[in-house]
Design goal:
There is one protein chain. By secondary structure, the protein is mostly helical. The protein has two domains: about 40 residues, no CATH class; about 80 residues, Arc Repressor Mutant, subunit A. It has seven helices and two strands. The protein has a two-stranded antiparallel ribbon with strand order 1-2. The longest helix is centred in the N-terminal third of the chain and has 25 residues. It is elongated. The two termini are about 30 Å apart. The model has no long low-confidence stretch (mean pLDDT about 90).
């Protein structure tokens, strides 16, 4: 559905103005879809992001700073997210052997098993983009990259 119909606005100052509102509106729509998808696994999208980073780091551990650098949501409190994942036994925190002041974060077997379950259902999540064909999705990704400069 067109943005004008979704938010009941007849016109915008410019196509540039409309694009900003459209992007914000679409982000919020996608964020709600993501929350619904992650709810069945009892984690948030930020926690999922941390688990994926940790899986990609294996067998090397990660630090909180590394997680902060690589997270999609730069406003997320990575330390708090790690503690919640630890409570769910999805990650472990260990004192770094090289620097006793630092803490290493490692994904657990349970964390890897959860990611495997989510991976099986990812095609359902990817269907959120089904209205775009393969050429359009490549163009869409290129345009988003270009927008960020």
């Amino acid at each position: 559905m067109r943005l004008e119909e979704e938010i009941k606005q007849k016109e915008f100052k410019s196509e540039y103005s409309k694009s900003v509102v459209n992007l914000i509106y679409t982000f919020n729509w996608l964020d709600a879809q993501t929350r619904d998808f992650m709810k069945k696994f009892d984690i948030t999208s930020q926690q999922f992001n941390i688990l994926r980073i940790l899986r990609g780091q294996q067998p090397a551990p990660a630090t909180i700073n590394l997680l902060k650098e690589r997270m999609l949501d730069k406003m997320c409190d990575a330390s708090r997210m790690v503690e919640r994942l630890k409570t769910k036994s999805l990650v472990e925190r260990r004192v770094c052997e090289k620097d006793r002041r630092a803490v290493d974060i490692i994904i657990t077997k349970k964390g890897l098993e959860l990611l495997a379950k989510i991976d099986k259902e990812m095609p359902d999540y990817d269907n959120l983009m089904k209205n775009l064909n393969s050429t359009e999705i490549k163009q869409f990704n290129n345009l988003l990259d270009k927008l960020r400069g």
